[in-house]
Design brief:
With 178 residues, this protein is of the alpha/beta class. It is built from 7 helices and 7 strands, in the order αβαβαββααβαβαβ.
Length: 178
């Protein structure tokens, strides 16, 4: 029997490089974990901590507002109730096409639009308020609904399916000429 062949120097170097790479990755992960834990501890100890882990923290999705279905919406349209359609899409989207009689109050700066359009009085006069957004999964409308609910406007619902569902249903649309 012949003695086992010695490993080539190239294989040993590659094995050492892999081992070094793994060690560096583990070290980097340890540093990141330590820094993250330290940041959470410091945040907890300061006078005004950032609500990172709360439901209302940065990037948290808002509570889903009550939706109004297409059949309920069409019934509401044909009723004699004072209805306010509030379109929270961007001004560009609203200017391209919107529901007749809708007001545009973009969600990105809704508080300013609320003041600018004197929405408090308009909302109090409305028996029903329906928010229109791009889609059903549009957190902008949910944030606006919560804002309005916090100001004691309780009759606010979001149109289920958003603007796409509104148009697809064949409801009236006002379009601006190109």
């Amino acid at each position: 029997m012949s003695p086992p062949a010695a490993a080539s120097p190239g294989l040993l170097i590659r094995a050492q490089e892999t081992s070094t790479w793994r060690a560096e990755c583990l070290r980097a992960l340890a540093v990141l974990a330590f820094a993250g834990a330290l940041g959470l501890v410091v945040n907890r100890l300061i006078d005004k901590p950032v609500p990172l882990l709360s439901a209302n923290g940065p990037g948290a999705l808002p509570e889903r507002a009550t939706r109004i279905s297409l059949p309920a919406f069409t019934t509401l349209l044909s009723s004699q109730k004072a209805l306010l359609l509030l379109d929270v899409r961007t001004p560009a989207a609203f200017n391209r096409e919107h529901a007749p009689g809708a007001l545009n109050a973009p969600s990105d700066n809704f508080a300013a639009h609320y003041q600018e359009l004197s929405l408090s009085a308009i909302l109090q006069a409305a028996e029903e308020v329906v928010l229109l957004c791009e889609s059903d999964d549009c957190p902008s409308a949910d944030r606006v609904a919560r804002f309005l609910r916090d100001l004691k406007h309780e009759n606010v619902r979001v149109f289920e399916g958003g603007w796409g569902a509104y148009v697809k249903a064949g409801l009236q649309v006002e379009r601006t000429a190109p």
